[in-house]
Amino acid sequence: MKIAICEDFAEDRKKLLQYCEETDEHDISLFSSGEDLLNSPDLSSLNLLFLDIEMEQQDGIQVMKSLEFSNPFTMIAFCTSHQEMMPDAFGRNVISFLSKPIQKHSVEQCIHKTKYLIREFAPIEVDDNIQIPCKDILYLHSEQKYTIFYTTDGNYFLSHIPLKQWAEDLTELGFCAISRYHIINLKYFLKLIHQTVMIAGGKRLPVSRRHLPQLKSQADSYTLRTLRYAAPHPVKSFKEKQ
Fold first, then answer.
1. How far is residue 118's CA from residue 46's CA, in Å, rounded to a whole number?
2. 148: enclosing H helix or E strand
């Protein structure tokens, strides 16, 4: 996950960086002004932005408004010591308000929440003119030289990218390869029945012995991560589902 910290006070930048690294995040860019951030070549690939509201020239609210249209999938966590500015800082990209001095657990929550939202809404570019949100993808199937994306509404889309490459690209977004021919969205995993997986809609797909340990591990990790923000009550682990 790519994170940026835009904060004009050096000590606050350093503290945010420390908390991110302690949460095992290391792809982090630092900016001391809104202008530097908006001119960065890495701007379009950011997943999470810790953004100071009170900055000279372009303040955090102005930066947010610029990003709402150019970077609709960049999540923003505002950092402020002035609570009275919060009503002006609400936006469709904003996921949290962190009060200074910022606490480590607040940074961790923003990181975990962003990862959850990415898995739900990040657009997957299946082809040049086709993008599908993660939450709408049910499973992928390898068919000769194509990869077929099957969606929750019953449609399907062809991609020229091989399934093996998709397996590498989609793992962090909550997808798991269960054989040489199939990748499932763990959001729709229901249970394992012998050597087959049942997913939403009653669809059953074969699981290879080689991929079985990976499925068990990734399914449990996915459940635990999702619990942090998505579940109102305890959810059974993979082992309890069997």
1. 11
2. strand 146-151
Q: How far apart are CA 182 and CA 176, in angstroms?
A: 9
- Look at residue 86 in the predicted model and tell me its pLDDT: 66
β-strands 146-151, 137-143 pairing = antiparallel
CA distance 219 to 217: 6
Assessment of whether the complete model's pTM goes beyond 0.85? no
**Of the ranges 1-10, 120-129, 142-151, 224-233, which one carries the lowest mean pLDDT score?**
224-233
> What's the Cα-to-Cα distance from 23 to each of 17, 27, 30, 109, rounded to whole Å?
10, 12, 17, 10
Determine the longest span between alpha carbons in the chain, in angstroms: 62
φ, ψ (nearest 5 deg) of residue 213: -60, -40
Residue bearing tokens 């299946």: 126
The predicted-structure confidence for 131-174, as pLDDT tens digits, reads as follows 999 999 999 999 988 999 999 999 999 999 999 999 999 998 89
Distance CA 136, CA 186 (A): 12
State both tokens at 16: 């945010």
CA dist., res. 37 & res. 58, Å (int): 10
Instruction: Please give the Cα distance from 237 to 105 (Å, whole number).
Output: 25
Question: Across-strand partners of 139?
Answer: 150, 184
Residue 233 CB burial class (10 angstroms; 0-12, 13-18, ≥19): exposed
Closest among 64, 47, 201 to 123, alpha carbons compared: 47
Q: How would you label 30-42 residue by residue, b for 16+ Cβ within 10 Å and e otherwise?
A: bbbbbeebbeeee
Cα–Cα dist 39/143, whole Å: 42
